[in-house]
Design goal:
The chain has 17 helices and no strands. With about 400 residues, the protein is mainly alpha-helical. It has 2 domains: about 180 residues, no CATH class; about 190 residues, no CATH class. The protein is globular and about 55 Å long. Keywords: Cell membrane, Membrane, Transmembrane, Transmembrane helix. This is Polysaccharide biosynthesis C-terminal domain-containing protein.
């Protein structure tokens, strides 16, 4: 979808939309107060006794927080970075922000109770609906910056609708929770405090590059960079889909062979996907998009390398998270923040988009190294149980 927007609207308008999405993503990471990192852990753990219904009720106030912060950013930061001041775009950003947060919280809730396939399906349905709307706008000749933003907003709205339906089905069938509801949000937030550090680290690694590139170079380079980044993100679908299963399997019963099993398959799968994306993505950028997007293959290759490091740290930290150790993920994320910020501030003014991509790689490699060191420490504290370990090649 992002590539079609780039093709049909051009690099500058693509950059404006990308900056809007980036601002929304950063606010969602902050307004979730760490629950986007910890919800699946809490709901997976029997000791919490938390039902999905209790979780849904407790997290509703976060949507109001997100609405206020997004509105302020849409009126101040967004016009400054995008060089565009438009009330329609401001309203769209506010709607997108609240829908994005709520759908994300519901998605994590479904992962936490083991409905992994349903949670992932909701995201695909939202993406398909947005893509269909975008195609209809283009075919009718009504695709503009405004209508393009509407198609972008459609994705989290449809995602939220699908997740809401799925959550209600699950709540109708689940037994009542035993957690005390009074003050529940406060307890969840306190437990999720390390998740705020995780959100900050992931924000710097995966979102701040576009913001700083926009600040130094304007929306057009952001449009080119974001198009390459969109292709590279496809390689992250496998580790993102596997991570909740790793967390849940470790939380339900740890066996040391689990890490080797998951990490090997995720890295091999991600490597294969990255090679395919590198080949076909280069053709899309250089030939199909062409023009302003020509010469962006090195950016794509660098971002794919960063994605491999991200996949490694995601699996390693999922093991830590499965033991309820959010602090390890927080330390990993915090380690990437100074590296990312320094790299972006030094490299972007001098090397532009390529410098931005190099900063992305350095950030993710730093996080991968730290995650591996912390994961080894965690495994050392949890030796093999007496029960038989899973056979090599068998699903844990």
């Amino acid at each position: 979808m992002a590539l079609l927007i780039a093709k049909w609207l051009g690099a500058s308008d693509r950059g404006v939309l990308a900056l809007g999405q980036t601002i929304v993503n950063l606010i969602v990471l902050a307004a979730s107060l760490g629950l986007l990192s910890s919800a699946r852990i809490v709901l997976s753990s029997p000791r919490w006794g938390l039902s999905l219904r209790q979780y849904v009720r407790a997290t509703r106030p976060l949507v109001g927080l997100d609405l206020v912060v997004t509105a302020v950013a849409a009126l101040t930061v967004f016009p400054l970075l995008s060089r565009v001041s438009d009330p329609v775009l401001v309203a769209a950003l506010v709607i997108m922000g609240t829908a994005h947060l709520r759908s994300g919280l519901l998605r994590e809730g479904l992962h936490g109770v083991g409905w992994h396939r349903t949670a992932v399906t909701g995201e695909f349905v939202g993406a398909a609906a947005a893509l269909g709307l975008l195609g209809a706008l283009w075919a009718s000749g009504t695709l503009t910056l405004h209508t393009g933003m509407l198609s972008v907003v459609a994705r989290p709205l449809v995602h939220q609708l699908v997740q809401t339906i799925s959550v209600r089905r699950q709540m109708a069938a689940e037994p009542p929770g035993t957690a005390q509801e009074r003050g529940l949000l406060g307890r969840l937030v306190r437990f999720s405090t390390p998740g705020l550090a995780v959100a900050a680290g992931m924000g710097v690694a995966g979102q701040m590059d576009r913001v700083l590139l926009g600040a130094f170079a304007g929306p057009a380079p952001v449009g080119v960079y974001a198009s390459a980044a969109t292709l590279s993100v496809l390689a992250g679908t496998l580790p993102a889909a596997v991570a909740p299963m790793v967390v849940r399997s470790v939380a339900r019963g740890w066996q040391p062979a689990m890490h080797r099993y998951w990490w090997t398959r995720v890295m091999l799968g991600s490597a294969g996907i990255s090679v395919l994306i590198g080949v076909f993505g280069s053709l899309l950028l250089e030939v199909w998009l062409g023009g302003e997007f020509a010469g962006s293959t090195p950016i794509l290759v660098l971002l794919l390398l960063g994605g491999m490091a991200m996949a490694s740290q995601l699996v390693d930290n999922s093991v830590n998270n499965g033991f309820g150790d959010l602090r390890a993920s927080a330390v990993t994320a915090l380690a990437g923040i100074p590296v990312g910020l320094i790299a972006y501030l030094v490299l972007i003014p001098r090397f532009g988009m390529v410098g931005c991509a190099v900063g992305n790689v350095l950030t993710y490699v730093t996080m991968a190294v730290v995650a591996r060191l912390l994961m080894r420490r965690t495994m050392a504290r949890h030796p093999a149980p007496a029960a038989d370990e899973p056979r090599e090649g068998a699903t844990p």
